[in-house]
Every structure is written in C-alpha cells, then in structure tokens.
Specification:
Layout: H1 2-8, E1 25-33, E2 36-43, E3 49-58, E4 69-78, E5 83-89, E6 96-99, E7 104-107, E8 111-119, E9 122-130
Antiparallel strand pairs: 1-2, 2-5, 3-4, 3-8, 6-7, 8-9
Length: 131
C-alpha cells in the first residue's frame, strides 16, 4: 500500500486517496491543540463538490514506522464558494505502536508530523504535535 511506496520513495500511478473532482478546494487555518486537529476547507471552484480531507501522522524517526500513516478522514460536501471547519480527534492508539516484547500497544514519545491533504501525495497543510 501507500506506506510501502512512501518508505521506498516510489511514486505510484495513483496516490492513496486520489480522486477526481469538478471543482477545487483550499485548505487553511490548521490548528493543533493536544490531540485535536482542526482546519478550514473552502470550495474555491464554480461547482458544488465533495472532498475527502485526510490526516496523516509521521511518527518520530526513532519509532521505525513508515514515513506517514493515515489516522483519519472526513468527507465534506461544499457548495461553490462555501467553507467549513473540519475537526479530528486523535486517540492514544493513533500515536502508538505494537511492542512485540510486551505484546501490547505502546505510546510513542516525541514530535509527530501532522499532514493534512486530499491524498497521501497531495498534502496541503503541515504541523506537528508533541507526545
């Protein structure tokens, strides 16, 4: 899947989450507070349309995880020219990896990269959060 392509630096023909639309969208005002992520999406085109807003996390490099992992998505329908706020709440499991010695999920400590976009290769907003 997209994690292998990202880890190997290979460009797929169609990125994970890729879709076509008859309109365009602008992403803005990324705000990260604790495990909460909010942003504004605006339909900047002339037609009504639907966008799937996707949130990816880049784990700290010491975790050994792939470059980014999908942690949430929200389908948003907007009339032409309209804007909407989109919110995501991350859970502890979203910032955890499986510990093979303890056979349990373990929260990773460090700085996570927050990436929001229309697909795994179309990231529009960047931020970070610390655990």
């Amino acid at each position: 899947g997209y994690r292998w392509y990202d880890a190997k630096g290979v460009a797929p023909a169609f990125a994970f989450g890729h879709g076509l639309s008859y309109t365009s969208f602008n992403y803005s005002h990324l705000h990260i507070s604790g495990m909460n992520i909010t942003l504004t999406i605006t339909n900047t085109g002339k037609a009504d349309g639907t966008e799937v807003v996707q949130v990816y996390l880049g784990f700290p490099s010491t975790s050994g995880e792939p470059p980014q992992q999908l942690k949430g998505f929200e389908t948003v329908f907007l009339a032409a020219g309209a804007s909407s706020s989109v919110s995501f709440h991350l859970k502890d499991r979203d910032v955890s990896i499986w510990n093979t010695q303890r056979h349990d999920w373990e929260k990773v400590k460090g700085v996570f990269q927050v990436r929001v976009g229309a697909s795994s290769r179309d990231i529009r907003l960047h931020g970070s959060l610390s655990i």
